[in-house]
Amino acid sequence: SMPSEILMKIFSYLDAVSLLCVGCVNKHFYHLANDNGIWLKIYSSCFQTKKTIWTKRSEQTETLSLGRAALHDKKPGYWKKEYIFKQIAAVKTRVMQLVKPVDPYTGLPYKNKEAMKASGLSWIIVLKDKNGKEHVTEKANLSFKDTSITILWYSTSWPRLDILSTLKLFGVTPLLPDQSRAPSKNGPHRRSLIAEYHLANLTESSAAVGADKLVQLFSLNPGLLIGLWKEKNEIAFIMASLHYHQLLERSTLGSATVQYALPPSKPVLDDVDPEYGLHDYDLHLDMHGGSCTYMCGTFKSLFCRKGDIENGYLRLTVVSIKDDTKHLPLIGTVGLSWETDVFKGNVKGCYVMDVTLLDETRKPFWCFSAAVCMELSSQASSLYDYMGPIYTTDYADSEGRVCIELVWLEETKEYFIVNLVLYISTKKVNSWYGTNY
């Protein structure tokens, strides 16, 4: 019932984010909050240079005439759109400047954390039940590593697993990031779908990674881990491991319903004899349990001759069982840490593996972050220096496989990596180089 003139006067004191929120109340507020006069004032205060400050009468007259033309010649909402587009462009420019410097060891931008902060990026999960109702969980704990970020969500109000149908992982960015304050929870945001998972028959269709006294872990590719309470078979926590490679693109450039499609890679020109196969590849490997790092290293000059191709894979040997000078210890008690509002735990024998494989031009060739587990092998160690049980870790996706053999040394209470081999899919290599292996 309040007159529009009074509402407009009130709206003129609001900042851009508050004005956008007010416009969502009803149609009447939406039309009033689209007023070009209010938005031109906001636009001018943010983007006009200091020279437009009205210090002289001639400048004042010129600015006023320009303002009238800008108001009368434009449709309602024009200056709102101009302000939003320019703010988005400014944030994009700032983010692009931050991701330009590249770490020589990982081949990835080393200011990823700063870039994510500049964009205001966060992540949420949306659980959808069989009735179509959505349950959104925003609060998350973040853990940053050299090449990945681990995100942990937990809640006491999640629905039962047996009534859930899908889980969606979204990247969320505020429409108007403000570096001077924390993002408003109720402010305008954009969602970018990163991945969607079907939860029907989760325990039967998903890989069981490990368990402790309280929870059991199930892995969903790519990079999602669900912890279930053992007794109730209900969700205790959800953990996502996201590799930095193209993380910003996946988290910001998709829509709320469609994932961001990665551009096809352009074939890398290679003047070396194709019979030589792959050469001068570098691997950066990080093995951690969330907050604790067990092994982090870079392996250079990896190669594979064409004669080593077998069953559709090219083999890159990183650590050979025959060369004990390259065998590596894992530091600490290997396990995956988790927590909820009340409980904390550590699932032993599980960890997060971050793989960053660079080609000979130092471009990321194969990158992933995933939770894996160590399984006891039936074979005994035949190595003289390492007498103990053998454990294996195997990971596979559409682009390749990782096979690791570890020996447990009871005397020193530590694992040693004695064999580490990457198997790269020939389809991946052929699409990357435009060849036919």
TrEMBL record:
Which InterPro entries does this entry report, sorted A to Z?
Answer: F-box-like_dom_sf, F-box_dom
Q: What is this protein called?
A: FBX15 protein
Fetch the CDD domains from UniProt.
Answer: F-box_FBXO15 (cd22093)
Which parts of the sequence belong to the F-box domain? 1-42
Task: Please give an example of a GO cellular component term from this record.
Answer: SCF ubiquitin ligase complex
Gene3D superfamilies, per this entry?
1.20.1280.50
The record's section on Pfam families has: F-box-like (PF12937)
Q: Which lineage is the organism of this entry classified under, starting from the top rank?
A: Eukaryota, Metazoa, Chordata, Craniata, Vertebrata
